[in-house]
Automatic annotation (TrEMBL):
It catalyses: a 4-saturated-(3S)-3-hydroxyacyl-CoA = a (3E)-enoyl-CoA + H2O; a (3S)-3-hydroxyacyl-CoA = a (2E)-enoyl-CoA + H2O. InterPro entries: ClpP/crotonase-like_dom_sf (IPR029045), Enoyl-CoA_hyd/isom_CS (IPR018376), Enoyl-CoA_hydra/iso (IPR001753), Enoyl-CoA_hydra_C (IPR014748). This is enoyl-CoA hydratase. Could possibly oxidize fatty acids using specific components. Pfam families: ECH_1. One of its GO terms (molecular function) is enoyl-CoA hydratase activity. Belongs to the enoyl-CoA hydratase/isomerase family. One of its GO terms (biological process) is fatty acid beta-oxidation. NCBIfam families: PRK05862.1 (NF004517). Keywords: Fatty acid metabolism, Lipid metabolism, Lyase. Its EC number is 4.2.1.17. It comes from Acidisphaera rubrifaciens HS-AP3. The lineage of its organism: Bacteria, Pseudomonadati, Pseudomonadota, Alphaproteobacteria, Acetobacterales.
Length: 257
């Protein structure tokens, strides 16, 4: 698959996707989002891949949707074209996706990171939803996901005033799982992805499904859902291997299909 706006590589069972439009701070134009969606779906369907890392460059994870591309659009244009639909592909990926964020993650860039399963931040990361400066609001889930992550007051402040959050604040506010020195970001993300990719692919997929369910249903409903997906895991070879390995004091060997 030839792509111009993303660069990819595979290391073992980990796929790395790098947003690659540095001259525009990785602004997320239609072509980039199409390429990203296609590549994510391809890795999701590839049994040799166990986890995906999504990153940008030192200066920007992504500085938002492409403002120059959106500038001339009218309401009927955006209604007909439904360009936001392309942004939802990442939420349909069943394998874990880790965002490794350095520099700017703004607007759609922050929303894209929040659609990933884990955000690892470099100490240079800056998160923000500055769409209000442009006379619009976040349109790829920002008002919803940021509010769930950091709470109403902080989300309101960021969305209403366009204030950026640095990496330390993002960690305190639970927007990111951890902050690492910028020089170590990719290594840490790849190590984390490799660790996940070595585990039971079925258990990992079901764990992701179950955690995501917590965003959609009540606690009681979520706990029932968890139970209903926990029990079938006892019908898998991975459960037998994982528990036998523990009893035999050895490392489990989980097979990729
Ligand atoms: N869109 C298009 N081009 C951009 C964008 C962007 N979001 N961000 C930066 N660029 C371009 C600049 O125009 C510039 O290009 P050129 O050299 O041709 O003039 C180049 O990238 C470098 O940028 P700067 O010179 O501005 O770099 P600075 O270091 O001075 O500033 C900033 C960095 C602060 C990040 C600044 O570039 C900025 O404010 N960018 C815009 C941030 C923003 O407002 N993001 C929100 C965009 S709106 C959005 O994301 C809506 C999401 C809705 C999703 C719905 C589905 C589509």
């Amino acid at each position: 698959m030839a792509h111009e706006m993303i660069a990819t590589e595979v290391q073992g069972a980990v796929a790395l996707i790098r947003l690659n439009r540095p001259q525009a701070l990785n602004a997320l134009c239609d072509q980039l989002m199409r390429e990203l969606g296609e590549q994510l779906l391809a890795y999701d369907a590839d049994p040799a891949i166990g986890a995906i890392v999504l990153t940008g460059n030192e200066k920007a994870f992504a500085a938002g949707a492409d403002i120059k591309e959106m500038q001339g659009r009218t309401y009927p244009d955006v209604l007909e074209d439904d360009f936001i639909a392309k942004w939802e592909t990442i939420t349909r990926i069943r394998k874990p996706v880790i965002a490794a964020v350095a520099g700017f993650a703004l607007g759609g860039g922050c929303e894209l990171a929040m659609m990933c399963d884990i955000i690892l931040a470099a100490d240079t990361a800056k998160f923000g939803q500055p769409e209000i400066n442009l006379g619009v609001i976040p349109g790829a889930g920002g008002t919803q996901r940021l509010t769930r992550q950091v709470g109403k007051s902080k989300a309101m402040e960021m969305i209403l005033s366009a204030r950026f959050m640095d990496a330390a604040e993002a960690e305190r506010a639970n927007l990111v799982s951890r902050v690492v020195p910028a020089a170590d970001l990719l290594d840490e993300a790849m190590k984390l992805a490799a660790r996940i990719a070595a585990l039971s692919p079925v258990a990992v997929a079901i764990a992701k499904l179950s955690v995501n369910r917590s965003y959609e249903v009540t606690l009681a409903e979520g706990v029932r859902f968890e139970r209903s997906v926990f029990m079938p895991l006892f019908g898998t070879a991975d459960q037998r291997e994982g528990m036998a390995a523990f009893a035999e004091k050895r490392k489990p060997r989980f097979a990729r299909r």
